[in-house]
Amino acid sequence: MSRTALPGSAERALPGPVHHKGAGPAPNGWLDPRGRAVGGRAFALHRLTGLMLVAYLYVHLCVLSMLLIGNSAWSSFVALVTSTGFLCLDVVLILGLLFHGLNGIRVALVGSGLLVSRQRTLFWTGTVIGSCAILFTALHVFGALR
Amino acid sequence: MSDPSTADNRQDVSKIETRSLRVYRYKRGDGGEHFDEFEVPVGPHTTVLDALRWIQHHRDPSLALRHSCHHASCGTCGVQVDGSEELACVCQIHDHGDRITVEPLANLPIITDLVVDMTSFFARFPHEHPIIRASGLPANAEPPEDLEQYVRLEDCIECGLCLSACPTAATAHEYVGPAALASAQRLLEEPRGVQREDVLAWASQPEGLWRCHVGLECTRACPTDAIPAERIMALRRELTFGGHHETKEHQR
After folding, report:
1. Residue A18 near residue A9 (C-beta atoms within 8 A)
2. N or C terminus of chain A with fewer C-beta within 10 Å?
3. Rounded to a whole number, what is the largest CA-CA distance in chain B?
4. Spatial separation of the C-alpha atoms in residues B89 and B66, rounded to whole Å
5. Between chains, do A43 and B84 touch, taking CB under 8 Å as contact?
6. Which residue range is the domain that position B80 belongs to?
7. Do B220 and A28 touch (CB under 8 A)?
């Protein structure tokens, strides 16, 4: 006896969607902070700062190419980037660099099977070191240490 | 199980404590994904599974979910509660806020509502490898020829929470995932005739333990303290400092 397909059975046979954490701008929801512990949030921040540093690298190379135009173009650009707004961006850049570097050391240590049980301590140690370093950097950038 | 619905008959309805559950809904062929919100009466020990069952019984019988043992042993009722991977049967409503979002596990295809297809979870493990093997059976057992229904991972209830929580699995779908790697490490601890080199060679495949980016969310999510992240790192330690020669796959 031949069986008649029920209405909608073809649609129901299709594979379902793969749900990801959160909606957000990040593909696959890796940026979703809900339910994450230190490791997961550090993973997301590490990715974000990595993307930021790659973007900065390209911007930096483009900016350096202004030297090809001549002294006047470069001088006017330097005047612009030494304004308070751009100095704030410098501090943000260095903050990202510090996080990426310090967390990278933590990931390298834990990822090699060393200090795995101390990974949270490593994270907070890096946070303290990074906080001190960014404070020193900010003071230096804004000329308070001169 | 504390059934919140029994409170209806004994108490003044206005005094019954309630929680709002936002539940993920998806039915194949019936439109897109969305959330439905239900007001659920709760008692002092109501779990998320109790609340979902109450919704099934009193509000929407079409709500689909998996569950079985009610005591965190079978691993079937894994869901995301407010974004955190939990076994619904032991997840207390009172540990969450007034409005609770329940979603299916991430990184696995959804069949319907809160039910995910675990096939791809198990497909990540090599069936020809002893990491998956038959459970111990009584001598007089007469198992059917299809042994797959008896295979178990070591020290793991195969709930899939670790895979859902893993940020690496979210970005690299070919990654074998924490559960299988933890099982491999467990096998090193107690080889029972298995060659260590075989296990290490399997674990060090390109989509194996070197894919892990140390998010360590698997250990946080694991309801049985199988500590998958620590076991993955122990495997790495074994490969890095244990004198194991790199395989070609590892070097790729």
Report:
1. no
2. N
3. 71
4. 10
5. no
6. 4-116
7. no
Q: How many angstroms away from the CA of B235 is the closest CA of chain A?
A: 8
Q: Strands B99-103, B18-25: parallel, antiparallel or unpaired by DSSP?
A: parallel
Q: Residues of chain B whose pLDDT is less than 70?
A: 1-14, 126-138, 143, 146-155, 192, 243-252
| Both tokens assigned to B81 | 């509660």
Spacing of C-alpha A124 from chain mean position? 18
B86: enclosing H helix or E strand: strand B84-87
Q: Give the model confidence (pLDDT) of B13-43 as tens digits.
A: 567 899 999 999 998 877 788 899 999 999 9
The answer to whether the CB atoms of B171 and A17 lie below 8 A apart is no
Confidence (pTM): 0.79
In the listed set B57, B89, B116, which residue is the last one of a domain according to the structure? Answer: B116
Number of structural domains chain B divides into: 2
Instruction: Tell me the DSSP string of B144-203.
Output: -S-GGGGEE-TT-----HHHHH-HHHHH-TT---HHHHHHHHHHHHS-TT--HHHHHHHH
**CA-based nearest distance A61→chain B, Å:** 29
Type of residue at B90: V
The CATH number assigned to the domain holding B143 equals 1.10.1060.10
Hey, what's the torsion of the CAs at A9, A14, A16, A18, to 10 degrees? Answer: 180
Is residue B198 exposed (0-12), middle (13-18) or buried (19+ Cβ within 10 Å)? Answer: middle
- How many CB atoms are located within 10 Å of the residue B182 CB? 28
Give, to the nearest 10 degrees, the angle between helix A119-141 and helix A38-64. 30
